[in-house]
Each structure stands twice: as C-alpha cells, then as structure tokens.
Amino acid sequence: MNKEMELIATAGFGLEAMVAREVKHLGYDEVIVENGKVTFKADLAAIPRLNLWLRCADRLLLKIGEFEARSFEELFQSTRALPWADWIPRDANFPVEGKSVKSQLFSVSDCQAIVKKSIVEKMKEQYHLQWFPQTGPRYTIEVALLKDIATLTIDTSGAGLHKRGYRKLSAPAPLKETLAAALIELSYWDSERILIDPFCGSGTIPIEAAMIGLNIAPGLNRQFAAEKWPIIPTRLWSVARDEAHDLIQRGQKLRIRGTDIDREVLSLARYHARQAGVSEHIHFQQAPIANLHSSDKYGCIICNPPYGERLEDRVSVEKLYREMGEVLKAWDSWSIYVLTAHQKFESLFGRPADRRRKLYNGRIQCNYYQFYGPRPPQRINDYELE
Predict the structure, then answer these.
(1) Domains (ranges, CATH) in the chain?
(2) What is the mean pLDDT of residues 275-300?
(3) What's the CA gap between 339 and 312, in Å, rounded?
(4) 228 CA to centre of own chain
(5) Distances (CA, A) of 45 to 7, 56, 227, 236, 243
(6) For the packed helices 263-276 and 204-213, what is the interaxial angle rounded to 10 degrees?
(7) What values do phi and psi take at 285, rounded to 5?
(8) What is the model's pTM?
(9) Which residue, of 136, 205, 248, 365, has the greatest Cβ tally within 10 A?
C-alpha cells in the first residue's frame, strides 16, 4: 500500500509555523496551517520519517476523515462510512479519545462511545465477525469536534514526540523537549556559535541544541505506536532509521554550556546528556548567574529561568531578572533569548526586547523575549586562507 494519505502534525500554541517549516524541510510542501495543527499529504514512508525527525511537533496523526456532525446520528453514520478496515486489523486494540470545542455535540464521553460503536459495526461488516479481542497493536483513535466539524484520526506516535528516550529521570518544572527545540530553532544559533543556558536545570535546552547541531534525529532512541502496525512494512522503519544514522554529523565540534545553582539537578543533566549521546559536546557547571563569564563573542544565551509561579517566589525572581540584566549588559555581541511568564521582564532586565513571541510552557502563557546581537563576521574557510 503506497497510496497518498493525509497526516496531521499537532503543535503547541505559537509553534504551528515552526512545525510547518519542519514538515516542508522533510519534503512535504503542500501544508495547511491551522490552530494547533499542520495538515499535509504524504505516502506511507512518511510515517516513520516524520516520527523520527519532527523536533517541535507534539504528535503525528493519520487523518481518516472529516465531516459535519450536529447530531449523534450524523456522527455515527459518517464515522461508519470511513474505511477503518483499510488501517485497523481485526485484533487491533482501538481505544477512542475525544475533545469538543464550540460544537453542538459537547459531551465528549458520548461522542467517544458513539464513534467506538460505529467503528465496531463497520468492522463487523468488513471482517464478518461479531466480536473483536482487541489484543493486538494499539490504534488510538481521536474524535475532535471543532465548530461542529468532526475530524477522525489515528495516533501514529504513541507517547508524545517530546519523549525522546533520554530523559528517564525528572526534575521540578521540566521544560518539554519539543518546546526546548523550538526555542533553539527560533533563535539565530548555529553549530559555529557558542551557546550558554545559565538556568539549564536537567539539561533539556543544551541537549536539544547538541542534537540539532549534530543533526541527530530526535526519535532515534524510542519506539512508536505505528511500528507495530502490520500495514507499514518493517523495511520502511529500517530505511528511515538507517537514513537518520547516516545523516548524523559525527565530526561536528560544538561549544555548549549549561550552568545552574543546583548540584543535584546538574547530575541529572549530565545523565541525560549521556543517554542522548551528546555528553562530550556539553560542559555543565554549578554557578549562579552572577558568575557567568565568557571570552567568546557573537554567542547565544537561550534560557528558561524561574517564573515566580512554580518554583520561586516573585520577589526573588525579580531580583534574579535585575541581576541578569546587569551581568549581561556587557555581553553586547551576544544574542539573548529568554522564555518567561513574568509580564514585567523587560523592565526588570533593563531593556526592551527586539521581538516577543507568545508561547505556552505547559498551561502557562509565556513570552519568548528575543534580544538580537550583531551578526558574526563572515567566516573564511581554511582553503581560502591558504
């Protein structure tokens, strides 16, 4: 089976354009960008490739159908009309999840039950069975209602794509890997510039930067729900993984530093870096922001400091932001990127941002403050110097 299908890469608020750019970069040009999702057409081989390579998306969904549903009867009949047996085998485990926004069918549990019943009835008809054991591969189905339009999908990812496989242990208030990758992708950092995270916590921003700098596919160290689907040949997963291994830039030298005041959380960061295979590219150090120093120029600081909402009280956080502003005032060749929920960050930091971008860290609304430094001088390669 190599027919064209529709896929949906889901995205956190404010990251839709970033995810669309990722999808296009992987070769799928015709994208439709909407709130929280990017829809595009692809073939079967795209499911392994995209699950392995999407850094900023939350999940990759297979779109089965979309239709108007203002009544339970419409929902039942339209769901039943979809080609479920083309994807779901007779032994599949197929739970149904749901959500409803601004729709007449507002009872999510009722919608889930109706969709489940409808799919079972369709599969009875197609497989000539009256009972399904549901002991096989998992196919998590979602019915998403938005303004009376129902979208039926199957989740190909399983665990969310932020689960890279390297963070087995957790620190307080961790930053999601997908958001950390987005913060880096939204910056002007590249593998030739030094990067410092002065509030690195368990190491997510430095680790994601190292994976980007080395071109390591974020999904290489994990499994996906669709790997167990019989309709996707094992060969496609092997080809995608082999391609990802071949594209790692193993000879790349990176300059990435992560500092924090917490000795225990830094031990987590070092462990996670080893798990991700990037420990030799990151230097972790216990140090407060007041002791931050570097003789390098044209670097990038990318950080997610305490907000004063979850970890620190507001007074101490505001003192920290003032201290940041004083310390970094002399770093005039550096670009500085700060994610925080504090509404008065710019005044505390001591200067207005060149750009602000609204993002969500979990359920917390934040701004990503971007302070641009000058462009680095144009580099001359070794061949031209000779």
Answers:
(1) 5-155 (3.30.2130.30), 177-220+249-377 (3.40.50.150)
(2) 96
(3) 15
(4) 22
(5) 12, 20, 12, 6, 12
(6) 20
(7) -150, 140
(8) 0.93
(9) 205
